[in-house]
Each structure stands twice: as C-alpha cells, then as structure tokens.
Amino acid sequence: MVFRKLISRGSRLRTFMMRMVIVFLILFAGHSSTGQIWNEDFELDAVGATSGQGTPPRWTSTPPGGMLGWFEVVDNSNKEFEGNYLTAAGVWESEFIDISSSGKVYISVDIKGTAGLDDGRDSINLYYQINNGPEVQWHKETAVFSLVYKTVSVVNLTGDSIKVIIRMRNGDTDESHFIDNIIVDAQPTIYSINSGDWNDQANWSYSRSGGSCSCTPDGLKTVVIQSHQIDLNVSGDAAELIIENGGTLSWKSNDLDLEIWNGGGLEVQSGGILTRDDKTGAHLIFEHTWKDFYLIADDSISISSIELGNFQGGLTISGSSDIYLADNFYITGDGDQFWADQIPFQNWLPEISVENNLTGTLNLGN
Predict the structure, then answer these.
(1) pLDDT at residue 260, rounded to an integer
(2) How many helices (H) and strands (E) does the chain have?
(3) How far apart are CA 360 and CA 366, in angstroms?
C-alpha cells in the first residue's frame, strides 16, 4: 500500500514537472522562434493593437495629434504595423533590450510604403538609442521607395541596452508606411578555413577551426581572413573585415567592389595583404549615410580606389604601412540632395571628414 502510494505520488510529481516545463517554454518563448536576442513580427498581437504584450510592453506607439487615419497592428495576409494618413510623425518604439552580454549587435527592419508618397514630405526614419543616450538616425526613406518589403539594417552597435525607434509621416488617405520583422541580434563573425573564392561556402566557418557555416560574407557579418588566400571573384560586402597575419584578399577579376557597411571598417594586420593583383576597378567602398568608418593599414594595401559614400561622418585612416591607390580617392555622397531634400534635415550642411593618421604614405595614382 505504501509502495503504491509512493509510485502514485512520483507519477503525479513527474506530471506536474512536465507541465511546468511546458508553461516555462511558452512564457519565455515570447515572439522569437529563431534565437535572436529580440524580435517582433506582430503575429501574437491583436489586430488594432497599439502596444505590445508584456509588462512593461515589448513595444509602444504614439500617434500624432489630430491623426486622420490609424497607427496600429493590421492583418494583410500577415500581421504588420501600419501608419496611415499621419498628419505629423507617429512614433513606434521597442522596449530597451538587454545586449550587455552580446558583444556587437545589429538591427534589421523590414519597411515598405504605398504608391503616392510625396518626395521630401512623406518619410520613414529609423533610429536607435543605446544606454538611454541620444537617438541616432541610421536610415531614412522618402517618397515611393518600395511597394514590397525591403530589409534595412545597421551593424557594429555595442552597449548595455538598445531601443529601436521608428518615425513615419504621410499625409493622405491612400498613403501608408508599414514595418515588420524588427530584429536585434548578435553580429556574427565568420572565419576563413580554406583558401579559395569569396562566395564559396566551403571556405567560411563560425569558428576558427570548425566546419563550414554554409554561409558567405555579407553586410551583417564581421569577416576574418586567417592564414588563407581568399579571391574576390564577385563584388563583396562585410560589416567589418580583418585580414590577419598570413592572410590575403586579392581581386580575381576587374571591376569588382568591396563594400564595408554601417560604420564598420577594414584592418590589414602585420603580415596580411589586400591587393588588386594588377586588376582594374578594384574599389574599396565605405557606404552609409551618417556613420563613421575606419581603415587600419599595418601591412600592404594596393587597390584601385577608395570611395566614401557618406553625407555625414567620415573615415579615419591609421596604421604603419603604405596604401597604394592606382586611381583615386573619391567622396561620392550627394551632398546637394542631402541639403535640399532630406526633411527634416533641410539646411543641415553635409559634413564629411577624412582624417589621415597613417605613419606610412597614402599614394594616389591620379
């Protein structure tokens, strides 16, 4: 009798524990099923919701005064957040998200609009706020920019906490902006594990000596070339690029761009090589509207040109080696357009700086 009672109690205990595990998984799964630090796809929110779930809420929204349309979650085959007929800017913002143990992180957001949006008047603006500091704008679209979702991102962000802020304004009944899939995640680092082509998945791993990551470099990743030769056989992107001792990145064909995105940089360490290998059109491009970049040359850099595509911000060059540009150094950001059209930044002078702290020589072929 006692033995049967003990078995019964043990069975009830196991059942209780299994139920608690299930409840725990449900409670802590939140809105993310992909392992990101934080994401919001609005699928668990009610149609018409103006704030997210939880206490405090995962996200909040503040419509403009006198709004004539709506600023809420809608369902158009999938749930998304829409701002319609906003006579002034409506604000969507996430909670502060803990990134203290994540190293560098990136933000990714899907955005789209409707036809009829007006140039210089209707806009969607994306910001981040780190550690309760100032808001930093990292993306902007005006007029008709995309009728289907486009993904925009910013990388190389560090701190203890981060908030995503989105402002949108549109001024007519048939005008809307939409946002979806707001993601904050750790910025991945990939390492070369073989010599070969830039776009060959077999050459890259998430660890220094692991197996293939089944991935290639892109604008969200820190890319580290170890003691291998990687051939740039296609135009390539990286958030940051580090060429270590014994590593080489060389152009395999003419007229290929190597683009560094969103306030990242390129470092050629002592014993590393970045070379055009006598190819033409080997362009190194630093691309973002407002972010600063860095270029560290502690060993050989020999390419066709460097291009800086900012409206604001700049490039700091340092290191102990020489840099050889067969062609030119270009600043290509359209400052006139920035001055004239980028509401609310009209009459904000473009300010682009290049600071050369190189102890070697910067050689310009042209």
Answers:
(1) 93
(2) 2, 30
(3) 18
* Nearest partner of 359 among 319, 310, 331, 330, judged by Cα: 319
3-state secondary structure of 264: strand
Peptide bond into 134 cis (omega under 30): no
* Burial (CB count <10 Å: 0-12, 13-18, 19+), residue 336: exposed
Whether this model's pTM surpasses 0.90: no
Give the pLDDT confidence of 275-303 residue by residue, as tens digits.
999 999 999 999 876 778 999 999 999 99
Residue 75's Cβ-count burial label (10 Å; 0-12, 13-18, 19+) is: middle
Close Cβ partners of 77 (under 8 Å, ≥ 6 residues apart): none
pLDDT tier at 19, thresholds 50, 70, 90:
very low
Cα–Cα distance between 167 and 63 in angstroms, integer? 10
**Strand spans (E) along 200-350:** 204-205, 222-225, 229-232, 236-243, 248-251, 256-268, 273-275, 282-287, 293-297, 301-303, 305-308, 312-318, 323-325, 329-331
Average pLDDT over residues 66-87: 95
Quick one: DSSP state of residue 221? S
From 8-17, 176-185, 343-352, the region with the lowest mean pLDDT: 8-17
